[in-house]
Amino acid sequence: MSAKKYIVLIGVLVLLFVVFKLLSPFDSVNMEGVDIGEIGKEFAITVKTTDIRDFNYLNSNEHIQLLSSSEIEKLKKYMKDENLKLKEGKYKLNQTDKYQDLVNKLEFEK
User: Smallest Cα–Cα separation from 40: which of 61, 67, 58, 16?
Assistant: First the structure.
């Protein structure tokens, strides 16, 4: 390949870079302070009456382990302090759910 072709190729690559940089929505908009959310895996858990449904259930369910360990610990403490068990049922959760989301999505009983 001749030097002239290399120069043309480099020029085209630079031009493409500049065009993509100008068209990028994240570069042209000030994103400071904008929460674009978190992306996490959605999953479902099914709680049966035959399950141990107190705070120990959170250790035994493999899907629950997708949640942040700090959020699981907060939920365990809440369930233990309030002497709560999970109600039987199916619950849809997201890997990025926080403690308060979990309290709102799950149903409890004494």
Answer: 67
Alpha carbon distance 65, 18 (integer Å): 44
d(CA 68, CA 74): 10
End-to-end CA distance of the chain: 78
Note the pLDDT of residue 93.
92
**Residue among 100, 109, 43 at smallest CA distance from 79:** 109
| Claim: this prediction has a pTM higher than 0.70 | no
Rounded Cα distance between 79 and 56, Å, is: 10
CA separation, residue 69 to residues 60, 66, 104 (Å): 13, 8, 18
Torsion of CA 95, 99, 104, 106, to 10 degrees: 60
